[in-house]
Amino acid sequence: MTDRLARSRPAGASSAAGATPPDLRAQLPRLWPDGPGGRVDEEALAVLSRGYARAGRTLQDLLADLDVLCSVVGIGASSRMIEASSVAWSDAFLDGVAAQASGSPAPGRDVEELREVERLLHQDGNGASWGPLVPVGRLLLVTWPGPNAGRPRPSAEELDRVVRETRQVFPRSAVAPQPAYDRVVAAVADSPSLPGRVSTLAARCAELAADVPPAVSLADVPADAGGVDRLLRPAG
Predict the structure, then answer these.
(1) What's the chain's Rg over C-alpha atoms?
(2) 196 by DSSP, 3-state: which?
(3) pTM value > 0.85
(4) Maximum Cα–Cα distance across the chain
(5) d(CA 224, CA 136)
């Protein structure tokens, strides 16, 4: 699969790593889970591509970032890789157009988006073979007080607005609503700019809030799969 999804590029091209943003470098172990010489994970490529469309980023943005990632690895993006990412981006873009026209998201989309967040959190453990090039993953949580605090649950519209804002602030991250837990979650990359971006999102959520604004926080990602599951699906 490797030779079908990528073609060789001179080894010196990997010098692009130093200029690559941390949240883009976080995609390296997700797209190449077996390390720099391994195959491209096509499902992870589709997840990344759908995320760009849902964040309002263009297909050109996606292809440019993929080219940067391939240059870090020392390969060139193949026609198959470009085609697969373009199809996934287009499908998500058209789903968004249809959702706007109907006023509601496609059935099962919340489940799919949460699965994408979970997948990326699980794959953070694959970063060892990449060394310090790959930043640590964090879970971003946007949480409303909810009934336990004597407050109403956020409406579907409120959740959707916060999902959109989160994607604007973290355009390369997987984002999902969790209405059962009165929150929105996202898999984000740790970086020096992360606290400032969290503050930006908190300020936007406060502007959007009709009542008490949601709290924006970060959680460390457990190393084990069970820990990730408990983090995304807390008991009680």
Answers:
(1) 18
(2) helix
(3) no
(4) 61
(5) 15
Burial zone of 6 (CB within 10 Å; 0-12 exposed, 13-18 middle, 19+ buried): buried
> In DSSP terms, which residues pair with 75 in a beta bridge?
8
User: What is the rounded CA–CA span in Å between residue 85 and residue 91?
Assistant: 10
Residue with tokens 């690895």: 73
Structure tokens at 123: 């794959």
Distance CA 86, CA 74 (A): 22
Cβ atoms of residues 143 and 182 within 8 Å = yes
Task: Tell me how far CA of residue 158 lies from CA of 49, 70, 81, 197, 213, in angstroms.
Answer: 25, 37, 36, 20, 10
* The amino acid at 200: T
Contacts of 80 (CB under 8 A, 6+ apart): 4, 5
How crowded is residue 29: how many other Cβ atoms within 10 Å of its Cβ?
26
Residue 234 CB contacts under 8 Å (≥ 6 apart), including other chains: 181
Are the beta carbons of 89 and 53 closer than 8 angstroms? Answer: yes
pLDDT band at 200 (very low <50, low <70, confident <90, very high): very high
> CA–CA separation, 134 vs 56, rounded Å?
25
Q: Which amino acid is located at 136 in the chain?
A: V
CB-CB contact of 134 with 73 (8 Å): no
Put residue 70 in one of left, alpha, beta given phi > 0 → left and psi -120 to 50 → alpha. alpha
* CB 114, CB 185: distance < 8 Å: yes
Instruction: Give 28-73 pLDDT, tens digit per residue.
Output: 888 998 888 788 999 889 988 988 998 889 999 999 999 999 998 8
